[in-house]
């Protein structure tokens, strides 16, 4: 699964990313942090998972590559990337951010492409205020789950990412086909802004499937052992029907019906072998 957080500057995407990776024991990558001098921002530095640092940009730089008042240190960025360790199987990869400064480096674009092409979970941030051919190609990828952050949904997305961080052990228990389907579901919900369904997928559905809590009662009827009670899912000519509150848009989800974790888990267990 490849997750990209985006949003306007100061939307909180870097903070959400940091909170997520803090909860993951096995990870590698790097973040971009502000450099402050007596409270004033003077530049940006790169910080890797193992504590390696490098200047990305500074108001004191004499680099001819400029973004606003900052000189971009492409050579230092490339040297930093060269020193990153090879990806360890099973590690989460993270990068903050795919942004205008970083994209002056061809080596950076090559590394991001390599990360995306690996069969490894990735989470990072991407600019929403700068576009070029590379960012367009990234966002056009079929395996990218794009989540847009704004002040109205930041706390909900924090909650969703916390659910994913907690339940990654369940996700990795699923076979490759199931993991691919989970990623496609997540992409669909992220593109549509269906945050309730996205949370249910990460918090419940992958657990139900990993723990074999879905029983097939007939060709079109399933029982899902939910967290509070069993739910009945029916397959009809018009799709899936569930008796839960989310599907029916009632209770805590009044006016916001969506695809529930019970339907999601039935979809997953119904995939062809």
Report what the structure shows.
With 273 residues, the protein is an alpha/beta fold. The chain has a domain of 150 residues: P-loop containing nucleotide triphosphate hydrolases (Rossmann fold, 3-Layer(aba) Sandwich). Helices cover 38% and strands 26% of the residues. The chain has 9 helices and 13 strands. The strands form 2 sheets. A 9-stranded mixed β-sheet has the order 5-6-4-3-2-7-8-1-9, with helices on both faces. A hairpin with a 4-residue loop joins strand 3 and strand 4. Helix 1 runs parallel beside helix 5 and helix 5 packs parallel to helix 7. The longest helix has 18 residues. The radius of gyration is 21 Å and the shape is elongated. The chain starts with a strand and ends with a helix. The mean pLDDT is 95.
């Amino acid at each position: 699964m490849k997750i990209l957080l985006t949003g306007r500057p100061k939307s909180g995407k870097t903070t959400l990313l940091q909170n997520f990776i803090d909860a993951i024991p096995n990870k590698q990558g790097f973040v971009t942090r502000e450099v402050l001098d007596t409270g004033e921002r003077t530049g940006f530095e790169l910080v890797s998972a193992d504590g390696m640092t490098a200047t990305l940009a500074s108001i004191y730089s004499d680099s001819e590559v400029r973004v606003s008042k900052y000189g971009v240190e492409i050579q230092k960025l490339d040297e930093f990337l060269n020193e990153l360790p090879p990806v360890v199987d099973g590690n989460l990869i993270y990068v903050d951010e795919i942004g205008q400064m970083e994209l002056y480096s061809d080596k950076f674009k090559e590394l991001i492409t390599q990360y995306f092409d690996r069969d490894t979970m990735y989470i990072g941030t991407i600019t929403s205020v700068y576009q070029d051919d590379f960012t367009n190609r990234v966002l056009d990828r079929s395996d990218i789950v794009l989540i847009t952050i704004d002040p109205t949904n930041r706390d909900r997305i924090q909650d969703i990412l916390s659910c994913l961080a907690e339940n990654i052990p369940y996700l990795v228990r699923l076979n490759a086909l199931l993991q691919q389907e989970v990623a496609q579901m997540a992409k669909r919900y992220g593109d549509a802004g269906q945050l309730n369904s996205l949370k249910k997928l990460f918090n419940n559905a992958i657990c139900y499937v990993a723990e074999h809590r879905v029983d097939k009662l007939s060709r079109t009827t399933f029982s899902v052992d939910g967290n509070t009670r069993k739910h009945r899912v029916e397959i009809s000519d018009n799709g899936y029907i569930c008796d839960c509150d989310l599907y029916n848009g009632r209770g805590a989800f009044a006016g916001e019906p969506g695809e529930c974790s019970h339907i999601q888990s039935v979809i997953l267990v119904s995939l062809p072998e």
